[in-house]
UniProtKB/TrEMBL annotation:
The chain crosses the membrane at residues 12-29, 41-62, 83-103, 123-145, 152-171, 183-204, 216-237, 257-279. It is a multi-pass membrane protein. InterPro entries: L-PG_synthase/AglD. Keywords: Cell membrane, Membrane, Transmembrane, Transmembrane helix. This is Lysylphosphatidylglycerol synthase TM region. Its main location: membrane. NCBIfam families: flippase-like domain. It comes from Moheibacter sediminis. GO terms for cellular component: plasma membrane. It is found in: Cell membrane.
Amino acid sequence: MNPKLKKSLLTILKIGVSLGLMAWVLQRLDWEHIGEIFQEVNIFFFGLSVVFYIASQLVSVARFNLFIRKIGIRISFWTNSKLYLLGMFYNFFIPGGIGGDAYKAYVLSKAYKKSLKSLGKIVFLDRFIGLVAIGFTVCILLVFIEIPYSDYLKWIVILVGLIGVVIVLRLANRFFHTHKKRIYWGFLYSILIQGLQLLSVWCIMQSFAVDGNTVIYLTMFLISSVLGIVSFAGLGIREAVFYYGAHWFNFNENTSTIIALSFSLMTAAISFLGIIFIFKKIQFQNSSKPN
């Protein structure tokens, strides 16, 4: 199959999954109740959730910078942040386009005369380490969740998950041998990123006066982040996971889904700011700081 056609079909599929799930979930909500929830929203905590989310993205910038410096790209944190924000815009608002990650690799390859293949590997490694960190964080959170099955099964899942994380990191270190210790540092950055995003979700929960079952909500958020790869920018999947999770754990499905939807809308609003750098070209200059 033609690669371009395959990519187009995959994009259409992802958009279809997102739109289908979003429509399916939203039509089952009690919007009158949701209106009442929004009338009582705590603006302070919602604003704080935005701060934590932005902080998580800034750490993501630092993680990406950690890897590209290894191949000789010196770029200031501010410039890297603008490129990252532009990449977020492409990922969220340009379906079927080049994609934010691919765009970053292409721009840096052109600006610094580096191999597009090597930058592609770094982009993959950057995302891969993030997924491994999500798996690790889920395993930690599972310790604090009462699962309606055998406790032995829960601990087996946790143990296998943690061992799997160690094995995957070791294999990544062998495959991306040129980065070595940077992979472990990247993993620590990723744990921090997930921690900040969980704080963002917790603040959204507080803004809607959701005080109980915090660990379960946070675990659902991480699971939806992993499953988001089969949808467009995670839309629909996150809301579906929170909706079905509410039924599974006997939560209020309106409140649960609105937590997910609020995070999606916040992500979209921040990502949209990247449009600035479509019209205002990013100037690349080597950073004066040593490696």
